[in-house]
Each structure stands twice: as C-alpha cells, then as structure tokens.
Amino acid sequence: AFLIIWLSQLCYNWEKHILTFSFILLYVNSFVARSKTCGELRSAHIGQEVTLCGWIQYKRHEQFVVLRDFQGLTQILIPQVEVSAIENCFCSFLMQTGDIEVKAETAEVLNYCKKLPFEIKDFTKKTEALRMQYRYLDIRSIQMQYNLRLRSQVVMRMREYLCNCYDFVDVETPTLFKKTPGGAKEFVVPSREAGKFYSLPQSPQQFKQLLMVGGLDRYFQVARCYRDEGSKPDRQPEFTQIDIEMSFVDQDGILALIEGMLQYSWPKEKGLIKIPFPSITYDEALSTYGTDKPDTRFGMKIIDVSHILRNVDVAFLQNSLSEPHGTVKAICIPQGAKLQFKDLESLNELSKSQFNQCSALGKLRLKSAELLEAKGLLLRDPSAFHFLWVVEFPLFLPKEKNPEELEAAHHPFTAPHPLDEHLLYSDPSQVRGQHYDLVLNGNEIGGGSIRIHNAKQQRFILEKVLKEDTELLFHLLEALESGAPPHGGIALGLDRLICLLVGGSSIRDVIAFPKSFRGRDLMSNAPDYVDPQELEPYHVQVTWPLTEAKARTN
Amino acid sequence: AFLIIWLSQLCYNWEKHILTFSFILLYVNSFVARSKTCGELRSAHIGQEVTLCGWIQYKRHEQFVVLRDFQGLTQILIPQVEVSAIENCFCSFLMQTGDIEVKAETAEVLNYCKKLPFEIKDFTKKTEALRMQYRYLDIRSIQMQYNLRLRSQVVMRMREYLCNCYDFVDVETPTLFKKTPGGAKEFVVPSREAGKFYSLPQSPQQFKQLLMVGGLDRYFQVARCYRDEGSKPDRQPEFTQIDIEMSFVDQDGILALIEGMLQYSWPKEKGLIKIPFPSITYDEALSTYGTDKPDTRFGMKIIDVSHILRNVDVAFLQNSLSEPHGTVKAICIPQGAKLQFKDLESLNELSKSQFNQCSALGKLRLKSAELLEAKGLLLRDPSAFHFLWVVEFPLFLPKEKNPEELEAAHHPFTAPHPLDEHLLYSDPSQVRGQHYDLVLNGNEIGGGSIRIHNAKQQRFILEKVLKEDTELLFHLLEALESGAPPHGGIALGLDRLICLLVGGSSIRDVIAFPKSFRGRDLMSNAPDYVDPQELEPYHVQVTWPLTEAKARTN
C-alpha cells in the first residue's frame, strides 16, 4: 500500500457533519486511488493495508502529518518522507479516527500549494468579496461542503419522491425562448438574425402548461431560471426552482403533493416536519400578521381593538376611528417591559416611515421581535421550521402607477376561484384566484396555482381585464383550444429553501458559484468586454454612455 | 363515482410500451381527480366504482366512447350523455383493458377541442415543420411520450447510480459566465454594464475542475450547455450533457464508472449491455476503420495489402506505393457481388470526392454497408448497442489554417500521456493525451480526460505550445497552484445517447421543445424582434445589414 498526500494549509473539522453521509460510505472509494477515506479508519481496521489520498492538514513534530479529505482526518506516521516544507502546527482536536494511526510505507506528494489568500478555518474572518474571488478555496470550508452536499441530497430525495414514487416525468425545457408579455427583467440573447433576440425565461411556465396540453400528465423539472433585477440584495441573475405541473388536479392535490415531498426529502438531522401544513387566507394573513408571508414561529398577532377604544376619549384614537375604514390595532408584546426607551423610539421611527401602509403593523411585529431577541429572549427558534400555506389571494391588483387599471397579482394564467367566476365580468377586482403561496418562517419559498384551461376565459382575462397584447401568447391560446386538460402546479425556490434549511445568511451560501449583488462573478471577472468583431455575427454594437465613450477615445 | 372526459381527436396506442412503466403504477393516481388510469382496469376490478380522466379517443355508435390517457384506453358506456358532438369512428384494436367496460354514472366534459392541424396517428404523415409548430400536439404521439418518459427514467437511474450508490454530489454551475479562450460559438448576453457581456458556456469544464480544487471529490451535473453553430443539421443551440468529474482518479477509474452507470441505467426492454466495453487506440481506429468513431456492429475492416501488391506490375498501384508513406488498402465486402454497377459507380464518386483524405476509407466502408443494406442485407442491427472506447488520442493537432502551429485536439486542460510527458518540450506533436471518447454504433456519445493538475505544466501548454492568452484563464491557473488534486472526468451527450437508445432519426425526437436547424422555435417564433427601448439598459443597438436597413426605412 502507498500513501498519497499533498500540501495545503487548510483546516477542516468534518466530525460534526459526518453522520449525514455515512449511509453511503460503502462505495465512496470506488474507481479512485484510495482504499479508505480519511474519516473511515477505526481500531477494527488495525493491521490492514490502506491507501489514503488527501491534503495535509497539520504537521506535528517531524514525523506526523494529519491527512484530510472530505470525510475526515487521519494521523499518519511518516518515518522517511521529507516533511520540512510543511509548516509545523500544533493543535488539540478530536478525531473520529483518533484510535488509529497509519504507518506510511510509501508517500507521494502529488501537488504543491502556494500561500493561500486566507486560511480555511472556521474562525477566520474574511470579506465576502474575498470568499467570492477565491470561491474554489471557500468551497473547502466545512460549511460550504455541508451546504452543497445537503443541497444535492435533498434534491435527489425530491426526485425520488416525484419520479420513482409518483411517476412524474422530468422534462427539460428551453432557456433560449421568446419574450414573455410584460416580461421586463428578462435577459436578451442576440441571435444571428439581425434584430432578433432570444429571451432567457424567468420560469418554464408556458412550457409546463404546454406539456399538460401534450398529455404528459405529471411534469417536474429542477429548472434554471433567469431574472435581471439589476442590483438587488440576495437575488441572483440565475436561480433554480423545483417546477411542477399536473393534469386533472385541484388545489388540495398540489398542496398534498408538496407537503409529502418536503416531508420525504427533509434531512433527518433537521427533525421531522408535520403535515399537513396549516393554511391561512390572504385576508386573514394581512389582518393577523400584517403581511402575506407571516412568520408563525411566534405569536404577537395583530388584534383589532377598535371596539374597546370606540368610547375612550383620546383625540388621536377618535380621529383614526372616524376615518372611513378607520381602525385601531394592537400587538401584545410578551415581556414588552424589557424594551427600553431607545427601543420604543426605533419602533416609533419605523411606524412613521411606514405611515398609511398596510404592511406597517407587520413590520412593527417583526421589529419588536428583533428588539426582544436582542435582549436575549428567544422568540424565533432558528432550528424550528414553520410552514404555512397562504391561499385565496386576489386574482388582480390595481397597478401601482395607475390604480384605475388592473394587473395580474401573480401571472395571467391563474384560474379564478370557482365561487368568484361570475365577478370576472362585473367586478374583476373582487375575484379571488386559485393561487397558493408556501411560506417558511416568514419567507415565501414557493407559489403556484390552478391554471386557466379554457381558452375563452384566458383570452377574456388577457384582452379585457389586463389589456395585454395576446400576440406574444398566440401559441398558448391555440394550445388551450386543443383539448387542454384542467391543470395546475407550483414552483419552489430551491436556493431559498436550502438556505433556510442550513441557516445560511444569504442564498449565496448554498450556490457553488454565485454572482455578487451587482451580478458579477468576482472569480472570473464576468461579465467582461468582448471584441467588437465577436459581436458582428449577432448584428449588435455597444452604445457607449457619453462619459465612457469619451474616456475610451482619449 | 363520476367520469371526467373531454373531447379531442387524438389516436393512441400505449399497449406496446406500457410494461416499461408498470412498476410505478401504484401511485400514479395520487393527488388527482382519477382513481384509475385508462390502462389499468382488468376483470378483477369488476364491480368497483372508479373515476377516469382522459381524452375521447373514439366514439362507437351513440353509446360508447373510448377514453384515453397516457397509460391506455378504456371503453365507457354512456347511456345518457350527449355524445353527438363527437365524430363517429370505427376501429378494431386490441386494448389491454378489453375485458372490462366502465358504465358511466356521471360524465363531465371538461374542455373542447377545435379541429387539429393534424391527426395524432402513427400513420399520419406530417412535415417536421408542422410537428414543431404544434409541438404540444406532437408530444401526444406514442413515440414522443415514450421518448420523453424513457429519457426521464434513464436520467433518474443515472442519478441513483451516481448520487445514491457512489456518493457523487450534484452541483449546479452557472450558465452566465465569461468567454472561454478560443471559445468561438459562444452566445453572448449583454449585461447592464456598458460593453460587458456574459457568455453562455459550452460546458461546465472550468467549474468542475474548480470544484475538484475545492475538495468536492466527486461531482456530477445534468448540465445545460450552449453552442451557437449557426445552421448545422442535428445540432441544437442548447443541449444537455451528463457532466462528471472525480479527484484522485485515473483513466481506468472513469471508464469503469461510466460502464457501470450505463449498465445500471440501461432500460430493461433494450437488453443487457456487457461491460467492460472494448477499447481501441486512436491510431488503430483510424487504420482499421478509417475513423475515430468506428461503428463496430459490422466488420469490413480496412486491411493494408501493400505487401501483397508491392511486386504486382500495375502502374497506379506502384505509383501509390512509391510515394512517401504510400500504401494500398482494401475492404473485403461480404456478398459484395450483390453490388451493381451503379453502386460501384457511387463508391467511385465518393472516393474521388474524398481524395487524399485519411477518412476516405472510413466513408467508403460506411457507404458500402449502406448499399448492401439497401439490397436487404442486415449489416448494422438497429437493436444492437456496440459501445467502444477510443483512447490515446494525440494531445495536439496541426491547425487547419496554419499547420505549422498546434491546437488542442480536445481542450487545453487534457493531461499528456505519462509516457510522453518528456516530448512536450521537444516534439509536442507526438504527445498522446489522456483523453478517451465513448463511441456507440459509430456515434461519439461522450468524451473526457484526465486533466492537468500541475499549474506549471498547464501554463507551459497554454503559453508555449498553444500560444494562448492566459489572462482569460487566470483564475484556473491560480486554482491549480492552490493544492489542486489529480482529477479527471467525462461528459456524455445525453440527447444523442437517448436518441440512439430509442432509435430516433434526430436528437429533436428526444427533446421536448427543440429548435429548428436554423435555431428557431417554430411554435413561439423565437428569436424575435424586440423593442429598441428594451435594449437600452443593456447598452446595445442593432446594426442592420444594409439591405434590411433600407427595407425598414422605406
């Protein structure tokens, strides 16, 4: 047996996560040079010849090295090898392989490592920009390894549930597509036909509906989606959604499917999740929590106290109550006495900035929770997972810029609530949609709807209610006329879900190579300038902003 | 129980494929309105109440309809429902549900179907353009349903093999990236920074190597890739590859992994495949088959007969043999006597057109096979799957335009053959690479290599041998210097593999929504013109070709 090692200065501590992966350890050494991983050896192996491959984690005195791979650490006794190049490093730590020591017969240095820009140690402080620039080093950290491996396993379990248990068909749909109506925020891709562009779609929405028309019955895809939101915190220009669509299904069917899928794929070490999830209507969510994505890990519900205060002789209360729809609402803050004057001041400031916004009370509720937690009270258990369905959204909302006109609350393909269909023609603003959002700990992690399968209804909504040009959707309308089945679906934001699962501070923590909030890849420096010649086949040229154009000619 | 039906004129015959999916039938009715599929009922079910959902396939007399879904057909007796809208249709066919008949208690028409542009029947001839325009109808065909479902199942099995059996990590890598050096054929995506573009990468090559540097050990991804090849037959601007990379692995390890994966995921109804696959060197492939992707389902090998003919007094033979490296080679055509004069003429024509090309004999071999098959001889069994590894490719090839200079035969990250490393510095054109191609029935379906993990060697090859600007690869070179492990991998072309598996005539037959050979989506009419305003945030404008610019101003 021989020992393969090489040099690096990274620090690992796999112990706390190792159990997660142990069920598949059996075959992890197939096809490669090692016979065991560095986390595998125990006293039962004493006497065996083994081959290990990994990075040198520590050197102790002149004879010992601690070898590290993605599974753990093993101490090696190397009587003859030159280890002088390796920095001495003392540390006291627990290794699961602590009972054994490998005596090297042969050791081979396979590669060298220059001085790294940062040490890969849990306690090393480094800016996110530096982590992004050297992402291939950042990925060596315990946390990133754990995040990426957990993500892979959760998605695999979802696939088993959908594909193997429930006969869903995994269909890949195009990402070079056509502009969606109203689809601002879509990246364009110039084609070789002058003036013609593909769009990178924000979701496979149209394709999945067309697949239902095509009789595919049960579709899913782990779909790459694109959205150009400029610089928004914690958004990515490309992101991933678990995209699902079924025929002959109603809202309850989709909800049960997703509950089952999340329960099936939930990592054991994160505890069991109870199904079915509770559900709340949009109206109730707004009145009780002041938001359509309530964090139900804690109470502090909003209570209407108008009836109590109606006869109290306080001017500002009476003023409020005398307004049309005027109410006075309250949040009862448990242990609120812990809040100090400056805390109350900051709550005051927040209220003023949110004046006349419906979401003001929701924000006050969250802010109060934050302030109490800063005092050491645990209101929102970070290890608890509170799922919540929000249902009965309005189908249309007044346009922000022109409240006389309506726009789709989610997208124009959502079917109206069966009880409200007649209102479509008389008072569309009152129609509820068969839309549902899935909320986890106050974060929207998915949404979907039962779709319109009737071409006439779809055309009415597009043309008469939304005043959209239907030409861009010609193919979809024609498809609905071709015997489209009733169908519905959902999409879960995978990045957000995994981020909540691992307790990450940003979705960038669960994406191998994320972009910065300005949409840049700091490692490779993308996007980058290209030679004007390379743009020629695409019939586009750059229109330089005036200042830059000047700078470039000087 | 009630029966849900609606109207369409499509024709289905699922019987021949139904066995493939029966192992997962148990749960296919969960979450939806039906209690059974239309392919499920047998005499054992007599007396049960059931709910079926589907399309009306046939109407018989005024009482019977045959309901169809993705699983099969069931005859329904409808005493009271209005079926006059449905065209009468006589047919004699076998149904697996032939022993039973469902007596409808309730029937509901859920949607109507207009006259379709073509009937979905096996024998309906339709142009591919029409199929593409109405792809959502084309997908209803037996063959397309089979192809898409088989594809989903094969990929799922591959995932099980990689993820569950061998602990690979499924990592999603970005598709908005930076231009690859020498990466012509890459689509560009304008960003909001003037003059800066993303590229849609042709493969996750750089990312997967960086993941190995990051200690991820075993990576795979079913990766969407992009290549702008203009109008090439049977290519797609976006396609899918099974992308794999491992650390501490050698060529034999990768080959064994892939053989195991294909055996594990191969559909039962396509027969067993034997592993290990045979392998052949590049040189041997060229000399024996005249191509680096030999179809080994038939013999007719190329034989060097120079030694026999050296003393034969025929002028054109002697002329050939007297040239430097001059040889005379032969193919023995079994039953060649069946070839007629015009066949021999066409072979003659082909030889002339291929004069002086090394691949001439390979093409003659294939053409001869074609001609013999046209006579009714079965040389290439379409149900046979002959895998072949081609190994020991040259690492570099002379550039077509300037044969004095060298270019990478595959890509610049391929490691040299260990026995040839010394030649890198003296005679690089003689260096073999650790590259391997996987060939199936004469089609290249995958390729990979052991990569260079030594930064110095990588820099030498890029700068000194290939004369490439290394600036674009700065991050990769820096990563190799940071303790990169020895690593290697492979990518399989999924579309091509599934196409061969189902015996499709084009990869378009195994892609749900493919582009035409000009890169157009004929259904939605993508790519399409966009409003110049929409290009403004991206700082690009269209440069109209002169003729078109004129036409647009007139």
Automatic annotation (TrEMBL), chains A, B:
GO MF annotation list: aspartate-tRNA ligase activity; ATP binding
SUPFAM superfamilies hit by this protein: Class II aaRS and biotin synthetases, Nucleic acid-binding proteins
Stored PROSITE patterns: AA_TRNA_LIGASE_II
Family: Belongs to the class-II aminoacyl-tRNA synthetase family. Type 1 subfamily.
Pfam families tied to this protein: tRNA-synt_2
Record key words, sorted: Aminoacyl-tRNA synthetase, ATP-binding, Ligase, Nucleotide-binding, Protein biosynthesis
Gene3D superfamilies noted in UniProt: Bira Bifunctional Protein, Domain 2, GAD-like domain, Nucleic acid-binding proteins
Location of the Aminoacyl-transfer RNA synthetases class-II family profile domain: 148-514
Any Gene Ontology CC annotation: mitochondrion
Protein's UniProt name: Aspartyl-tRNA synthetase 2, mitochondrial
GO BP field: aspartyl-tRNA aminoacylation
